């Protein structure tokens, strides 16, 4: 109990000095808890939606897409309407109704503005059924009754200011058609962002499926007292299961959840990974805080030992203080995490992904995880300073000798750090020279971990060398004040190393990702320049196929020399060695070999576009021993089986269409029924000589009525690629900002405690003539040199990681290394400003010290 009282007294006595460490714990715990609450809320939102929209039993075609992605044919798989009556007669069925649904549509207003979501959520069109009443209710107008009427969901109506009577055009693979809004339906549960439109059944069948008498699924409602499982069994007995997929409400909801679960898991674990980085950075802050507090309480600890306290009691006292800090910071962090989750929901709602705070989900595990993580990390971080405190001898402490320096321990530490760094460097070198990406990636991960730990461990040794170099370049111009700042930074290399290491981690990741991102853009740009001969590329960007009417508009554009169709076709390929695998064959026009210049290893690519011929990539050819002249057995999904002669083997040393196998569209048309033939996923166009500028404008005008498609020349394509990678990097940088903020808090805390530690020294300096302005400048310069030390290590380490990663990715076609020097230099210079910012409060407090009181202070 006396240990607890002592710890509580010390904690309250130094609460100001503990504050920034508590903030670091709070931020890290808040990020973890906020991530868990946010993703749990998203799961709850989707679970409620899927549960509300699932029928007791659903009957759908076995070949239907599991994830609801747009069909490559533009038409979803369908069932004959006669099945509805057959299912309705099954014992235990209260009601069976046919439903039509398609996500291969685009809805536009009179200005050709897309009414779909901007967040990637689909636009779903279908017929209004009784099953829809489970999740929606008509809140304005009425359901559609004829071919010129439609109903929209309330979220879409609000977002795009739609009202009853407005006319919208629906673009489907069967053609365009217009209808006026006769009703608005509101979701009873949260709709995460999909745009939903309804038509009457006949219109939905004709316009979305291309034929009446077809449904995409049958919704079956169980009679009273009949379970979903029993109903599924009875329906399966009546229909058989060879051609149909039957799912209970729970199975359908689970399947839908799985389709979005992978995305949510990636988001969740990525954000938790960045929270983990913040925790690691926070460890340095906590270690520094307790190390300095222990050093400042040396005499007090000596008195405790002199009056009978054992090493274990002193050790335990410091750990209990850490426990109090961890509990305090974690409790606040859990609350802040819930607030962060609500903030993220508001941000997502503002960009089109609706999340309601009514679905806010805080599972009991979330605060437990936050508390355990925060407390464990804090106590573990404080263990080394606590152990060091317990080793202080009473007589040394009473003589005010301070915490004894252990030269032997420092030498051992430096040796271990150098060994780890050397081993990590060797692993990175081996990774960069690896012949296979799989083996190299493991070495890369090992090298990153070992070099990071090595730099952290050898930090004090590096501090003595690097700080002197930085000081010679930056501080010497400030005269005596600069030299004092340098000596202060070098006074405790271990502390400087730990403070710099916290900043080093975040900046190393920034530098690494910057190198990889820039190299990806440079490699793709170089590959496009070498490989792409087409002047224009047309794509949807949403996975939707290009509808025939848009394709016709492209072909009729004036100034276009040729247009190339590009259609990926699913097939089962059997090589001459007898091994079979599911893959894709790219069906394209012969002009594609001009639009994409593929290097041919063997044979003639032009011949691959001949009758019953194809090409394969050299990776596939090596794995299966395929040679030019061999015959491949190709079973087209939904069609017949073909035997195609291998006319060419193309190089896979590219990142454009890597591994693609080509054949002529006319060849595929022989083996696939017309209604099973995929539509174009991309289209390429070449302008007439000297008319590229005019053709570009004409092509954009031709597709003005189809806003879902993008027309890009090579400059646009490169810019789009750069913007996409840039946006991804900006998100990552934003998440890494948390770790950098915690690192800045570490610099602030180190300086603040250092000022307290040097109170008497500061008083003496002031007494012999150092002005307040010079004192503040000294502290600011000390902060700058520590920040630049961390930045130099981090940027150097990160560029090493990024360069190694690029060498490894060169095996996958990313052959150009580009160091983003403007970004690197901006970050380095920015680190100096971070140092200045971190020193503002400590320097201000030091400048306000009373000289006489400071001289009289015990430290």
The proportion of residues in beta strands is 15-25%
Compute the CA-based radius of gyration. Answer: 34 Å
Largest sheet: 10 strands, mixed
Give me the number of helical elements.
28
Which regions are unreliable across 5 or more consecutive residues at pLDDT < 50? 400-405
Mean pLDDT: 85
Q: How many structural units, i.e. domains?
A: 5
Number of strands: 24
Describe the global form.
globular
- Roughly how much helix do the residues carry, as a percent range? 55-70%
Structure explained in plain terms:
The protein is of the alpha+beta class. The chain has five domains: about 1-55 and about 250-405, no CATH class; about 65-240, no CATH class; about 410-455, no CATH class; about 465-530 and about 715-859, no CATH class; about 545-705, no CATH class. The chain has 28 helices and 24 strands. The strands form four sheets. Strands 15, 16, 17, 18, 19, 20, 21, 22, 23 and 24 form a ten-stranded mixed beta sheet that branches. Strands 4, 5, 6, 7, 8, 9, 10 and 11 form an eight-stranded mixed beta sheet that branches. Helix 1 crosses helix 9 and helix 25 (about 770-810) runs antiparallel to helix 27. The longest helix has about 50 residues, at about 250-295. It is globular and about 95 Å long. The two termini are about 30 Å apart. The model is unreliable at about 400-405 (pLDDT under 50). This is Membrane protein. It comes from Streptomyces xanthochromogenes. It is a multi-pass membrane protein.
């Amino acid at each position: 109990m006396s240990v607890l009282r002592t710890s509580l007294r010390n904690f309250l006595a130094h609460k100001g000095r503990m504050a920034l460490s508590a903030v670091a714990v709070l931020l890290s715990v808040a990020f973890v808890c906020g991530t868990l609450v946010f993703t749990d809320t998203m799961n709850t939102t989707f679970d409620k939606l899927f549960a509300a929209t699932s029928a007791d039993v659903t009957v759908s075609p076995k070949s239907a897409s599991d994830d609801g992605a747009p069909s490559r044919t533009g038409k979803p798989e369908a069932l004959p309407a006669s099945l509805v009556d057959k299912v309705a007669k099954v014992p235990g069925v209260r009601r069976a109704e046919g439903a039509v649904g398609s996500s291969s549509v685009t809805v536009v207003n009179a200005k050709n503005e897309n009414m779909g979501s901007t967040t990637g959520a689909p636009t779903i069109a279908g017929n209004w059924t009784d099953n829809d009443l489970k999740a929606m209710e008509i809140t304005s107008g009425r359901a559609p009754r004829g071919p010129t009427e439609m109903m929209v969901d309330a979220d879409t109506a609000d977002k795009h200011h739609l009202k009853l009577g407005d006319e919208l055009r629906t673009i489907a693979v069967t053609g365009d058609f217009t209808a006026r809004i006769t009703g608005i339906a509101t979701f009873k549960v949260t709709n995460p962002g999909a745009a939903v439109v309804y038509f009457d059944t006949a219109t939905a069948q004709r316009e979305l499926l291309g034929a009446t008498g077809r449904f995409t699924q049958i919704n079956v409602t169980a009679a009273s007292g009949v379970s979903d499982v029993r109903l599924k069994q009875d329906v399966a007995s009546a229909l058989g299961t060879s051609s149909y997929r039957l799912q209970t409400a729970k199975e359908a909801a689970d399947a839908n959840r799985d389709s979005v679960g992978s995305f949510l898991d990636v988001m969740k674990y990525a954000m938790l990974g960045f929270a983990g980085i913040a925790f690691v950075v926070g460890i340095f802050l906590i270690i520094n805080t307790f190390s300095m507090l222990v050093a400042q309480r040396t005499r007090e600890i000596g008195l405790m030992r002199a009056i009978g306290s054992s090493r274990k009691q002193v050790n335990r006292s410091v750990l209990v203080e850490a426990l109090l800090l961890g509990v305090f910071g974690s409790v606040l962090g859990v609350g802040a995490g819930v607030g962060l989750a609500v903030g993220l929901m508001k941000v997502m709602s503002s960009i089109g992904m609706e999340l309601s705070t009514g679905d806010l989900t805080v599972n009991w595990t979330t605060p437990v995880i936050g508390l355990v993580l925060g407390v464990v990390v804090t106590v573990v971080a404080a263990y080394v300073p606590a152990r060091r405190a317990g080793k202080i001898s009473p007589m040394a402490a009473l003589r005010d000798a301070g915490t004894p320096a252990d030269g032997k321990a420092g030498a051992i530490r430096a040796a271990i750090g150098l060994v780890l760094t050397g081993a990590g460097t060797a692993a990175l070198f081996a990774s960069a020279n690896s012949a296979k990406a799989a083996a190299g990636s493991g070495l890369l991960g090992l090298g990153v971990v070992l070099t990071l730990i090595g730099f952290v461990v050898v930090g004090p040794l590096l501090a003595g060398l690097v700080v002197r170099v930085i000081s010679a370049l930056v501080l010497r111009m400030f005269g005596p004040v600069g030299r004092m700042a340098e000596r202060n930074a070098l006074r405790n290399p271990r502390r400087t190393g730990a403070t710099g290491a916290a900043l080093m981690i975040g900046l190393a990741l920034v530098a690494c990702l910057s190198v990889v991102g820039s190299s990806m853009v440079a490699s793709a740009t170089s590959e496009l320049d070498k490989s792409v001969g087409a002047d224009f590329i047309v794509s949807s960007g949403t996975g939707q196929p290009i509808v025939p009417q848009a394709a016709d508009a492209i072909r009729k554009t004036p100034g276009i020399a040729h247009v190339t169709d590009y259609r990926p076709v699913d097939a089962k390929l059997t090589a001459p060695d007898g091994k079979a695998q599911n893959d894709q064959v790219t069906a394209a026009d012969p002009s594609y070999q001009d639009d994409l210049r593929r290097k041919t290893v063997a044979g003639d690519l032009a011949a691959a576009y001949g009758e019953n011929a194809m090409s394969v990539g050299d990776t596939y050819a090596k794995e299966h021993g395929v040679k030019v002249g061999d015959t491949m057995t190709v079973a087209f999904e939904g069609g017949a089986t073909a035997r195609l002669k291998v006319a060419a083997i193309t190089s896979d040393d590219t990142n454009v269409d890597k591994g693609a196998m080509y054949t002529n569209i006319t060849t595929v048309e022989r083996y696939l029924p017309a209604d099973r033939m995929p539509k174009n996923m991309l289209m390429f166009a070449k302008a007439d000589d000297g008319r590229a500028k005019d053709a570009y404008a004409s092509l954009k005008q031709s597709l003005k009525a189809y806003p879902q498609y993008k027309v890009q020349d090579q400059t646009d394509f490169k810019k789009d690629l750069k913007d996409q990678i840039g946006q991804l990097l900006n998100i990552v940088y934003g998440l890494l900002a948390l770790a950098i903020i915690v690192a800045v808090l570490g610099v602030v805390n180190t300086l603040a405690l250092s000022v307290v530690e040097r109170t008497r020294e500061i008083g003496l300096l002031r007494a012999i003539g150092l002005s307040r302005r010079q004192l503040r400048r000294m502290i600011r310069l000390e902060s700058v040199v520590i920040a630049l030390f961390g930045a130099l290590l981090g940027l150097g380490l990160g560029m090493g990681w990024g360069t190694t990663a690029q060498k490894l990715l060169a095996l996958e076609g990313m052959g150009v290394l580009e160091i983003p020097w403007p970004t690197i230099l901006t970050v380095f210079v920015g680190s100096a400003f971070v140092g200045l910012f971190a020193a503002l409060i400590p320097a201000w407090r030091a400048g306000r010290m009373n000289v006489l009181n400071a001289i009289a202070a015990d430290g």
